Every structure is written in C-alpha cells, then in structure tokens.
Known about the structure:
This protein is of the alpha/beta class. Mean pLDDT is 77; it is low at 1-44 and 146-165. The chain contains seven helices and eight strands, in the order αβαβαββββαβαβαα. The protein has helices at residues 9-29, 70-89, 105-114, 188-206, 219-222, 239-245, 248-268; strands at 48-53, 92-95, 119-124, 137-141, 161-163, 177-179, 214-216, 228-232. It has one domain: Zn-dependent exopeptidases (Aminopeptidase, 3-Layer(aba) Sandwich).
Amino acid sequence: MSPRPPRGLGWRCIRSSILATLGLMLLAAQGGSAALEQPTQAGSGIHVVVLDPGHGGADEGARGASGLAEKDVTLQVAQESMRLIAQLLGLQVVLTRSDDSAVPLEMRAARANQANGDLFISIHVGGSFGRAPHSFQTFYLDAPQRILLPGRDDPKAGSPLIRRGPTPRGATPQPRALPWDQAQWEFLDRSQVFARTLQKNLRTQIGDEERDTQGLPLLVLRWVRMPAVLLDLGSLSDPTFEDRLRDDAYVQRAALGIAQAVNDYQDLSR
C-alpha cells in the first residue's frame, strides 16, 4: 500500500491546478498569450511574499503625458500580483501599502521584516533607475563595503537595529536583531538569483526586450532582511508604454510574470 498523503494535500494540488487553468483562461479571453506557462504549487520554502507598490499619497512618482500616475499603476500591479500569488500558489502576500497613502522607505522595510517575509518585490514604473527609457529591468542591492563606523555600524555603539516579527511555532528561530544597514547582506546572492528569475518570467509574459539585471545602492532593499529586488517595468515618459499600462490584460500578464517568478524561485530554493 502506498503511503497516505498529508491531509488536504491532494485537494490543495487539485485546487491550485484549477485556479491556474482559470487564470490562464482569463488572460487568453482578454487577449493574453496562449503560450503562458502554468505556475505549479509552491512548496514549503516560501510562505510570505511582500509586495511594495512604489510611491503613494503626495508622492506620485512619475506621471505620463496623458496623466497616468506611477503610484496608481504600482498599486494596481501589486494588487493583481497579490491575487495571483495567493490563488495560484497558495502563499500569504503582504502589501506595504494597500491604498493611496504615503509610506516612508524605512516603514516599508520594517513592515516586510515584521511580516517575516521570504521575498520582497518593490514595484515601480518610473523608468528612472536605468539607462534605456522603455524596457523593464530588475535591480538588486549592490554589494556594500563593510566599514565599521562608531555610532552607525557597531551595535554596541548604538547602531539602529532591525527586528523581525515573532518566530512561528515549530520554525527555526531567526536572529532577533541586527544593524539596520546590514539587513540585506546575507541575502545578496539570493537576491541576484531572484532578479534573474523575475527578468526571465517577465520576458515570457510581456514580451519586452528587457535590460540586464543590475546592482544599485537602493535604500529600500538595503534594509530588508530577505531576498529583495526592485522591479522597474518601464518609463511613463513613453506614450506607447503608458497606453499599455492602461490595458488590464497587460497588467495581468505582468502580474502573472511576477507570480511565475515566485514559483520558479521556490523550485530553485528547495
């Protein structure tokens, strides 16, 4: 007799497959590609994905010629990505903002860390981080030089500390505190791997000619204690790209690329 599967596992797999198929049917019905790859159910390595819609409130970010604001697009992409990740992969998703509110960078990182996130994706459409104005690009934190400065990097001298939320029952305890500016250091390699995974899946879903992944000293990534990337979908100064962002089907394909990247990274990290 074959071993009995864990209770509920069979239904979760069937449910994930059904939801994935429905998601792809929805995209196809709205003009999406018929060759979309179906995400598989994620395993036990990733539990919480943190999505960070850039800008918000008085900080509108970039604005297109016809008035489309970056802060609105990033929230829409994040909310659609949250829906797909939760439904197709069965993972918990935390948004650093869920409405048109201003959230400081340090608060975005703090919310991610307090949620015990396993992946962090900051979403932007300003096109201001790279060289070319039109194509998408994924960024990771550039490797920092470790220079101890009294009062800043030395915890004994009063460096700001970053704290994670409580450890779930049965989980391996995590370090309770570490210098704020060093939060990302142990995740630099994994962040680069996830950046490349995200690039590949976005290329599949939205078909743009992307730029290479790149390391930059981005503060919102430096403060995050998990694999973390910043996704710049393109430039709102391009009227053609602005029109595409107004198309719900395009936003859904971008969100599906994000969900697929989470799924693929889960497979790599097993």
